[in-house]
Design brief:
By secondary structure, this protein is mostly helical. It has 2 domains: 187 residues, no CATH class; 105 residues. It is built from 19 helices and 4 strands. The protein has a two-stranded antiparallel ribbon. A two-stranded antiparallel sheet has the order 3-4. Helix 11 packs antiparallel against helix 12, helix 16 runs antiparallel to helix 17 and helix 16 packs parallel to helix 18. It is elongated. This is Putative ubiquitin carboxyl-terminal hydrolase faf. Keywords: Hydrolase, Protease, Ubl conjugation pathway. One of its GO terms (biological process) is proteolysis.
């Protein structure tokens, strides 16, 4: 719900984007905010962007009201309490019962309310305290940081520094400690929310507002790629498709802005600033992404379509090697007819972008296979060669 309310692109905030702040006015001498309706406050949590056409005043007022009610303080307290429980070593009672307080795999965290007296007065404050058997979960972390990742441009730098920057190292440490089983549970079918990438994306957006955060942004991007790779290695079909989608999102971004990290005028993109096409090509090669993808699920046409985008990227970056072609050819040798058909279709599409050396190697593969293939395999090879010949009307190949 908070993500909907604080989404700058929802219908309400889009319609009212041109409105100025109405609930709060700058305080005396520009310090804090004052309001005849809601009272004064010393801390400013959000301000309108410098772009005058869309001040988003109503959303800024909403964020400041959220802070005035202690929303940001409760957010940080919730993180601190949850992280403390996750880092707390299990007691002997927990060990004997087989329970653990450091797992992220539970679906929810139960909370209880405690009343704390303040300096002997009658005033009380309500704080959220996790029970010993509960912990902070990945969906919960995502739900807490996502709303503010959406409206990061409106939050003041002191707000980001105080309430969000202290939590990233701990959150990344917890994500790093996910077991393979926990990671599989986070793998969502296409079109559904992805907590891990959502957390990293929100962290990156918030960190980008602060100066001298290049190392953190780099760490976030590399961590995201590391989690995508793990998901690709351990997941079922849905998880692998999700991982391939994430890889292709990154590839489309770095391919669309190939020079955004060069020169004084940098292109600021929602997804990546630090990664370049060259670095992504190197990452794909160093982590053997192709080798992992070619191991299974090649009978699924939609899976091979995702693979095609990666291969086209490597061809464009001149990073597709003969070893990669050999791996593709071996992936279909002697396999089920559906796999052979999908990979032959893929090679027929890609052949037009191969250089002379790659084409020669592909034809060598054809020739070598002809000597050992059975009748049905020869028919498939001849069909592939016929398709290439028919498409090559000008004799380019």
């Amino acid at each position: 719900l908070l993500a909907v309310v604080l989404d700058p692109d929802n219908k309400f905030h889009t319609y009212n984007a041109s409105r100025q702040q109405e609930a709060y006015l700058p305080g005396p001498n520009g310090v804090g905010l004052q309001s005849t309706l809601w009272g004064n406050m010393d801390e400013v949590y959000a301000v309108s962007p410098t772009e005058p056409r869309n001040p988003r005043g109503w959303l800024v007022d909403l964020l400041n009201r959220f802070g005035q009610f202690g929303g940001f303080d409760n957010l940080l307290e919730r993180f601190n309490t949850g992280m403390a429980l996750l880092k707390k070593p299990p007691s002997s009672e927990d060990m004997s019962s087989g329970g653990t307080t450091s797992s992220l795999s539970d679906d929810s965290a139960k909370m209880k309310t405690s009343t704390v007296s303040s300096s002997g007065t009658n005033s009380t404050s309500t704080s959220l305290v996790l029970e010993d058997t509960n912990k902070i979960t990945l969906p919960l972390i995502h739900a807490l940081v996502r709303p503010f990742g959406q409206c990061y441009e409106l939050l003041t730098i002191p707000t980001i520094e105080k309430y969000f920057m202290p939590i990233w190292s701990v959150v990344l440490e917890l994500l790093e400690g996910l077991t393979d089983d926990e990671l599989k549970k986070e793998a969502k079918p296409e079109g559904r929310s992805d907590s891990i990438n959502g957390i990293v994306r929100a962290a990156r957006c918030l960190a980008s507002r602060l100066p001298n955060q290049e190392n953190l942004i780099k760490d976030l991007e590399m961590f995201r790629l590391k989690m995508i790779l793990r998901l690709l290695q351990v997941s079922s079909f849905n998880g692998k498709m999700n991982a391939l989608n994430e890889i292709n999102k990154v590839l489309s971004t770095v391919a669309y802005y190939p020079h955004r990290n060069q020169g004084p005028h940098l292109q600021q993109d929602d997804e990546m600033d630090w990664l370049t096409a060259e670095k992504m090509a190197k990452w794909i090669k160093d982590t053997d992404v192709l080798g992992i993808v070619l191991k299974d699920s090649l009978h699924q046409p939609q899976y091979v379509e995702k693979l095609e985008k990666i291969l086209r990227f490597l061809i464009k970056e001149k990073s597709l090697t003969l070893e990669d072609l050999n791996a593709m050819w071996r992936a279909q040798a002697g396999k089920h007819e559906a796999i052979v058909k999908n990979l032959h279709d893929l090679l027929a599409k890609l052949a037009w972008d191969f250089n002379a050396e790659q084409l020669d190697y592909l034809f060598d593969c054809f020739q070598a296979s002809m000597t050992t293939a059975n009748k049905k395999q020869r028919e498939r090879l001849l069909e592939l060669i016929r398709r290439l010949a028919e498409d090559d009307k000008n004799g380019v190949m």
